[in-house]
Amino acid sequence: MMPSALNERVVQLYPLSNYTFGTKDPQYEKDPSVAARFQRMRDEYQTIGMRRTVEGVLLVHEHNLPHVLLLQLGTSFFKLPGCEVRPGEDEIEALKNCLSETLGRNGDTIHWGVDELIGNWWRPNYEPPQYPYIPPHITKPKEHRRLFLVRLPDKAMFAVPRNYKLVAAPLFELYDNSNGYGPVISTLPQSLSRFNYVYA
User: Fold this and answer.
1) Over the Cα atoms of the chain, what is R_g?
2) Do 184 and 68 touch, CB atoms closer than 8 A?
3) Which of 80, 123, 174, 198 could join 143 via S-S bond, C-beta 3.0 to 4.6 A?
4) What gap in Å lies between CA 135 and CA 124, rounded to an integer?
């Protein structure tokens, strides 16, 4: 008889139809361009050091297949909901506050179950490439990006900024699709494969 898997994590997923999606005022990026983003990162590095970023992986299911909720801007840019962590701020609280600001409705409280780290990514320089490790020649990475699994309540009403769409992307669409979703999101199926999902 084979021994049972040690520390197997069971994750409860609820159907996409349990959630409703409204809209609210637009939320714009801090930086008007990629170049401006890296310049601000460069400026802030001199005063506060490496940037810390947290992002949430929100899962639902359709027909017993996990889907990741992504924010879509325009026709081809997708991102996980998240934010920069201020100096001295707890990263879990920062992510919960960010999720409420991005997807919450005024006056409503959503319980965000942030309790499982599923990925670490580092940006070695003030450039787009990121890696799930610190390259050996890098001693001072410029950004540390941490991805957390976020357990959703069984039902909720989200309010999505008008300049975004909230889309549910199935894992098979993300897998090995860095051209469509970038290197981080396209590796989520591997990061999420260690969980045992229960479908409500």
Assistant:
1) 17
2) no
3) 123
4) 7
How far is C-alpha 70 from the chain's CA centre?
Answer: 8
Q: What is the pLDDT of residues 103-144, one digit of tens each?
A: 999 878 899 999 899 999 999 999 999 999 999 999 999 999
Query: Smallest Cα–Cα separation from 151: which of 20, 18, 58?
Result: 58
Sign of CA dihedral 34, 36, 38, 44: negative
Who contacts 139 (Cβ-Cβ below 8 Å, separation ≥6)? none
> Length of the chain, please?
200
Q: Kindly report the pTM of this predicted structure.
A: 0.93
Which pair of structure tokens corresponds to residue 103? 């997807």
Strands 143-151 and 51-62, by their bridges, are parallel
CA dist list (Å): 28 to 32, 87, 187? 9, 22, 26
